[in-house]
Amino acid sequence: MRLWLKDSERKPDPTPVATDDRFAVFVGLGLWIAALVVALVAVHPLDPTLTVTIVTGIAVGIVGIIYTQVRRSRA
């Protein structure tokens, strides 16, 4: 096995697979929202560490949705 190949010996890069990243982001966002509901019902509602973590997860999910929508509209 060689660690370095000449450009003439390399195989061409495979074509990228078209995926729908929005589905994964929506699933993750849904799980964060479910975690928020569970935390507010089952855990002490004013636990700041848990609440901040969950709200941050929801915020990142919303940013992810916006990012995938913009990326999808450009393609």
Provide an overview of this structure.
With 75 residues, the protein is an all-alpha fold. It has a domain at 45-75. The protein has 2 helices and no strands. The protein has helices at 21-42, 48-74. The longest helix has 27 residues, at 48-74. The chain starts with 20 loop residues before the first helix and ends with a helix.
List keywords for this structure.
single chain; 75 residues; mainly alpha; 65% helix; 0% strand; elongated
**Binned strand content:** under 5%
Structure summary, number of beta strands:
0
Quaternary organisation: single chain
Strand count, sense and barrel status of the largest sheet are: none
Span of the ends, CA to CA: 39 Å
Helical residues, percent: 55-70%
- The Cα radius of gyration reads 21 Å
Q: Mean pLDDT score, rounded?
A: 89
Q: Which parts are unreliable, with pLDDT below 50 for 5 consecutive residues or more?
A: none
Order of helices and strands: HH
Shape: elongated
> How many helices in DSSP terms?
2
Helix/strand-derived class?
mainly alpha
Write the layout of secondary structure elements.
Elements: H1 21-42, H2 48-74
Helix pairs in contact: 1-2
